[in-house]
Specification:
Elements: E1 2-5, E2 13-17, H1 20-29, E3 34-37, H2 44-54, E4 59-63, H3 74-86, E5 89-91, H4 106-113
Helix pairs in contact: 1-4, 2-3
């Protein structure tokens, strides 16, 4: 994983996401949180378990991608699994009805809501 922002000494809230851009978006929106980018959906579970072990009292949130156009939606399913095994909360983007289906993560949503192209 890559530490995007926050203090690793004694965090009270840890947000784990897949990618760097999503991590930067979450760090902007939650400046007091420790934000970790797992870099790949397949790493979410191991990063979440490591974070839970290292900081057992911290609020742990998995901010998953929503790969709506990919069969099996690996971003959402792997995020959900990581949240379950690590005893974490799960957050997935909530898409407005008019949002393009190719958007898949919190960064895409923020950019689109701001009027830019994701």
């Amino acid at each position: 994983f890559i530490q995007v922002s926050g203090d690793m000494a004694k965090p009270s809230r840890i947000i784990i996401c897949e990618g760097w851009a999503t991590g930067c978006t979450l760090a902007e929106d939650y400046p007091a949180a420790l934000v970790l980018a797992a870099i790949d959906a397949g790493n979410l579970e191991s990063v979440a378990l490591s974070a839970r072990q290292q900081w057992p009292l911290a609020e742990l949130i998995i901010a998953g991608d929503d790969d709506r156009q990919t069969p099996g939606n690996p971003g959402a399913s792997k995020s959900r699994n990581a949240a379950i095994v690590a005893g974490a909360l799960l957050a997935l983007p909530q898409w407005p009805e008019d949002s393009p289906v190719e958007l898949s993560d919190f960064n895409d949503l923020k950019v689109w809501l701001a009027g830019g192209a994701a």
